[in-house]
Amino acid sequence: MPVTDVRHDLDALTLTITADFAAPVERIWQVYADPRQMEKVWGPPTYPATVVEHDLRPGGRVTYFMTGPEGDKHAGYWLVTAVEAPSSLSFDDGFADLDFTPNPDLPVTKNVYTFTAHDGGTRATYVSSFDSAEQLQQLLDMGVVEGATGAISQIDDLVAS
């Protein structure tokens, strides 16, 4: 399992997940840069993603929905804030309805994904920042750690294929 550490800090309002992959930085970057690859790892295994729009540049937007085992759909979006290929990506991630209108009742997280060379492979650090401890706790209660860990764990199989 590539996830080596998960930490949530209610004082700093952050959730940090660290994962190590046996693939070079450029290969891990491609997982997010290519929407067809991203679909294979964005949702947890039982909620695969479909990427609808993928404009991975500052000011760009990524839209997607995840489909559950019962056919239920859950949409979301990224507003891309910074891109430094292949080492980092920053975006705001929010929940949306199925026409990708943001859902104001659920939190928007600020995310920074960083990819660095480590032990012949890549260390990925995923940091999500929240506006309040209540928002962080809301996503923790919704299972964000289990979902993100499951999603990230799919990267190993993708890069090995």
Automatic annotation (TrEMBL):
It comes from the Bacteria. Gene3D superfamilies: 3.30.530.20. SUPFAM superfamilies: Bet v1-like. InterPro entries: ASHA1/2-like_C, START-like_dom_sf. Residues 22-159 form the Activator of Hsp90 ATPase homologue 1/2-like C-terminal domain. CDD domains: SRPBCC_CalC_Aha1-like. It holds the Pfam family AHSA1. Belongs to the AHA1 family. This is Activator of HSP90 ATPase.
